[in-house]
Design brief:
Strand content: 15-25%
Radius of gyration: 23 Å
Number of helices: 17
CATH topology of the largest domain: FAD/NAD(P)-binding domain
Helix content: 25-40%
Bound molecules: flavin-adenine dinucleotide
Strand order of the largest sheet: 8-7-16-17-18-15-19
Largest sheet: 7 strands, mixed
Shape: globular
Number of domains: 3
CATH class of the largest domain: Alpha Beta
Length: 479
């Protein structure tokens, strides 16, 4: 009798985690399982990768992940890489306000600071804004709504200035999102529920502290971790751990067809695979094309998930050419206040990588990662040449950090249609997609389009999809 067969479509971190987990669980269950992983590109990893550029270690997409969401860190440990996990060398970072860098008191990152003085130390907020943000706990809750935009929620709870100059760039930047459209319930469910269930964010955070979930006197530690050799290390180790999995790169899946409880998978080289289950980890617009013939409603909803294009400009300078002391890990540039008519900054933020992570650049070199483009503001990223983008990033940094010479090395990584946008109502849309696809149990979706864009959430979704696929293939697994 032939072994059950699971096909994973897409070899980004979600697809690799799915293939790895399917292999592991089948072994634990003592079941024979054939696994095929199909990836369109020449390499595995999707958005995750690292290059060595003129002696610098440059992450081309993500450079770190949240340790508090446990799934990626657990996977790293399982792969025997715990000793490769590094934490930021320092935490200080800034907001670019009115042309100058203002330090962000680290206690403010949880929105409700441990000590009230922290908010009063923020030089980028007016006294009125500080008073308004401090009074969050007194604002009446707005209950009975399913969702709201990040900007609307934050402005209502903490006031416009605090929101525009701090909360929106901090919380929206990671998603390259437009805060006027981003789903609060979908992206920050914890804060959303605090208002719904407790009446205020302040109450929720103080409650967490009382239960020691947040430790008031703990030394400040960044929630982010990275890998000493760059994020590509995770991909390399996962690939090694896929022994026995049939990996086909430079092949794309053109069509899926449900058949007799399983699925037929058609590849671009004309090959056709028959599987008990397929785990589809493509961006929403790619998944839409595959499910359209048998789940047209789900396809339409998938197509409606917008994507933003972004670019990472990696710039290496001679340290001696930079006038600024560079004390910290970088800065975020808030959107201009709509009332001010100020132009948008060319970059949305910049990480001073060689200050933040060990081993990023040779002695005497400062390595920077500048971010460009976000939802509804990504035309430059799509249309300008890489040289123009590098020049714009350099121009934005040169005046601000008193840089007296051109970078000694530059690279621009352009990520077109790369960041799924969880707009208001996202979770409802995903629930409807999953409901329609439940009619074809052999076809499972996972990845950044659905329930979390960060690496930990992509790993978790890949793992969950593997369990569902194994169940469809008749292999029982322990929870
Ligand atoms: C610039 C940037 C910075 C980021 N920074 C961070 C960060 O610091 N921390 C963090 O946690 N997250 C970060 N993210 C988000 C995170 O990197 C991604 O959400 C995550 O890597 C997506 O993984 P995925 O497997 O869902 O999708 P992808 O990586 O997009 O993988 C999908 C794969 O499917 C393949 N494919 C497409 N069509 C087909 C087909 N028809 N057949 C076969 N294969 C196909 C693609 O080639 C691709 O390899 C960042 C993202 C970007 C773009």
């Amino acid at each position: 009798m032939s072994r059950p067969h699971v096909v994973v479509v897409g070899g980004g971190v979600a697809g690799m985690a799915a293939a790895y987990t399917a292999r592991k669980l089948a072994r634990e269950a003592g079941a024979g399982l054939r696994i095929t992983l199909i990836e369109r590109d020449a390499r595995l990893g999707g958005k995750v990768g690292t290059e060595v550029v003129d002696g610098c270690l440059v992450d081309t997409g993500p450079d770190a992940f949240l340790g508090q969401k446990p799934w990626a860190l657990q996977l790293v440990r399982e792969l025997g890489m715990e000793d490769e996990v590094i934490r930021p060398l320092q935490r200080r970072f800034y907001m670019l306000i009115d042309g100058g860098l203002h330090e962000v008191p680290h206690e403010l990152v949880s929105l409700v600071p441990t000590r009230p003085e922290a908010l009063w130390k923020a030089s980028f907020l007016s006294v009125a804004a500080k008073a308004r943000a401090s009074a969050e706990g007194l604002q009446p809750p707005l209950r009975g709504q399913d969702d709201e935009s990040l900007a609307s929620f934050m402005r209502r709870r903490f006031g416009s200035e605090f929101s525009q100059r701090f909360a929106e760039p901090l919380m929206g930047g990671v998603h390259a999102g437009n805060p006027d459209r981003m789903s609060m319930a979908g992206i920050y469910p914890m804060y959303w529920k605090m208002e719904q269930e407790l009446g205020s964010v302040t109450k929720g955070i103080l409650g967490m502290r009382a239960r020691s979930v947040l430790k008031p006197n703990a030394p400040p530690q960044s929630p982010f971790v990275a890998l000493r050799g760059g994020m590509q290390r995770l991909i390399d180790r996962l690939e090694q751990a896929l022994e026995g999995v049939e990996v086909r790169t430079r092949r794309s899946v053109d069509a899926l067809e449900p058949c007799g409880g399983g699925v037929r998978v058609r590849l671009d080289d004309g090959d056709e695979l028959t599987a008990d289950a397929a785990v589809v980890t493509l961006p929403a617009f790619g998944a839409a094309e595959l499910v359209a013939p048998f789940a047209p409603g789900a396809a339409e909803l998938l197509r409606a998930i917008p994507y933003a294009s972004t670019a990472v400009a990696s710039l290496a300078y001679r340290r001696s050419d930079i006038g600024d002391p560079l004390e910290g890990t970088g800065f975020l540039a808030p959107r201009p206040d709509p009332a001010s008519r100020e132009p948008e900054a060319a970059i949305t933020g910049c990480t001073w990588s060689s200050n933040k992570w060990e081993g990023r650049a040779p002695e005497g070199i400062a390595l920077m990662r500048a971010f460009m483009g976000y939802a509804d503001h990504d035309a430059d990223v799509r249309e300008k040449s890489e040289a123009e983008l590098a020049q714009a990033a350099h121009g934005a940094l040169a005046g601000l950090l008193r840089i007296g010479a051109a970078p000694v090395s530059t690279r621009v990584y352009r990520w077109l249609r790369a960041m799924p946008q969880y707009e208001v109502g996202h979770l409802g849309r995903i629930a409807r997609i999953e409901e329609e696809l439940s009619a074809t149990p052999g076809i499972v979706t996972a990845g950044s389009a659905y329930r979390g864009v960060g690496i930990p959430d992509c790993v978790r979704q890949g793992q969950e999809a593997a369990r569902t696929a194994l169940a469809a293939a008749g292999i029982g697994t322990k929870e």
